[in-house]
Amino acid sequence: MPIRSARARSFRLILATVLGISLTMLVASPSYAATGTIQIIQGGVGEGTVTSTPAGINCTINDETGPTGECTVAFEEGTKVRLKAVAAEGSKFVGWAPVNSCPKTSIRIEAGATYECQPVFEVRN
Fold first, then answer.
1. Long-range contacts of 96-102 (CB under 8 A, 24+ apart)
2. Backbone torsions φ then ψ of 77, nearest 5 degrees
3. Which among 116, 105, 119, 104 is positioned nearest to 47, based on CA atoms?
4. 25, 39, 63, 87: least buried by Cβ within 10 Å?
5. Residue 42 CB: number of other CB atoms within 10 A?
6. Is 77 left (phi over 0), alpha (psi -120 to 50) or beta?
7. Is residue 1 part of a domain?
8. CA distance 112 to 74
9. What is the CATH number of the domain that holds 79?
């Protein structure tokens, strides 16, 4: 699942003795889910959109402005993310550039990893 805020709650039990009185407290403390990040980078000279399942990435690739929208998204560790590239009118999707950190369009997220994925769109002749 995409992570907008990785903050969750966990609780700690604290036992203390103050001035001879025993106290027991349950204290909330923040904890953070392990995440990895997928980043869509520009490739080619055409235009198109990259989306993900589960939802999170919705990145428009434009030769003039570069990637815009939700192009860098964190997902929880262990999430299987599938990427889909669709060319805009007048362009065609050629494939995925062989970037070492993003070898497939289906990625199982590892904690702390960053996957740079490069769709290649070209202008249709």
1. 96/120, 97/43, 99/41, 102/38
2. -55, 140
3. 119
4. 25
5. 18
6. beta
7. no
8. 10
9. 2.60.40
Indicate whether 7 belongs to any domain: no
Digit-coded pLDDT (tens) for 61-70: 998 888 999 9
Distance CA 6, CA 69 (A): 20
Distance linking the first and last C-alpha atoms of the chain? 38
pLDDT by residue for the chain (125 residues), tens only, comes to 554 433 344 444 445 555 666 656 555 555 567 999 999 998 889 999 999 999 999 999 998 888 999 999 999 999 999 999 999 999 999 999 877 678 677 899 999 999 999 999 999 98
Provide the domain limits for residue 79. Answer: 34-123
- Determine if the peptide bond prior to 98 is cis (ω within 30°): no
DSSP state of 82: E
Residue pair 117/102 in contact (Cβ under 8 Å)? The answer is yes
Whole-number Å distance between alpha carbons of 121 and 61: 8
Q: What is the pLDDT of residues 83-108, one digit of tens each?
A: 999 999 999 999 998 776 786 778 99
